Amino acid sequence: MLNEFRYKMLNREASSPKNKPLEIIENLNLYDEMVVGDIGSGGGYFTHEFSRKVGRDGQVYAIDTDEKALDFIKNHPLTEDIQNVETLRVNPNGINLPEESVDLFFLRNVFHHIPNQAEYFKGLEKLLKEDGKIAIIDYNKRKLSFTGLFGHYTPEIVLLDIMKQAGFSLQEKYDFLPDQLFMVFEKWP
């Protein structure tokens, strides 16, 4: 019951107009038949939105370390009518997907939780199609905030450096989120 409440709150926060979910989705340039990995999918708000955007012939993977979050997504009424969502639990060896199978990995507010980030993203690079991308949204440091006080953020320069080490270059940076970074990366040519 407590977990269900938590995931509902995560979805409420993700869908709040102040967090600009429609602008985020619009700037991801999703299309029919696309394959998207929603890493740190939480309650599944973006998983469900991506599912609509990529259509019946697309595929969305809700990827998380939290089995209860994945169960919440699987058992959510929105998921019952959707055939293009699959839940995947992250294992110690990474994400179990075929190489060159994903068009876009999306991470919102989870980058700062990932250990060994450069190695992790090198592993994701192998799973991306040739023109695949990684979209990262993470908190920017604010001194007098929960995220700033408890280290739940990633400085922009650190994020850029880690992604460069992992073999990615910045394709696009968006500035419409007041307290967060929003960057899209592509493989080095």
Write a concise synopsis of the structure shown.
This protein has about 190 residues and is an alpha/beta fold.
Question: What does this 3D model show about the protein?
Answer:
This is Type 11 methyltransferase. Residues 32-140 form the Methyltransferase domain. One of its GO terms (molecular function) is methyltransferase activity. One of its GO terms (biological process) is methylation. This protein has helices spanning 2-15, 21-27, 45-54, 67-75, 77-80, 117-127, 146-149, 156-165, and strands at 35-39, 59-64, 85-89, 102-108, 128-139, 168-174, 180-187. The relative contact order is 0.14. Residues 145-149 have low confidence and may be disordered. It has a single domain, classed as Vaccinia Virus protein VP39 (Rossmann fold, 3-Layer(aba) Sandwich), CATH 3.40.50. The protein is built from eight helices and seven strands; from the N terminus they run H-H-E-H-E-H-H-E-E-H-E-H-H-E-E. By secondary structure, the chain is of the alpha/beta class.
Would you spell out the secondary-structure blueprint of this structure?
Elements: H1 2-15, H2 21-27, E1 35-39, H3 45-54, E2 59-64, H4 67-75, H5 77-80, E3 85-89, E4 102-108, H6 117-127, E5 128-139, H7 146-149, H8 156-165, E6 168-174, E7 180-187
Parallel strand pairs: 1-2, 1-4, 2-3, 4-5
Antiparallel strand pairs: 5-7, 6-7
Helix pairs in contact: 6-8
InterPro entries: Methyltranfer_dom (IPR025714), SAM-dependent_MTases_sf (IPR029063)
Domain Methyltransferase: 32-140
GO biological process, one term: methylation
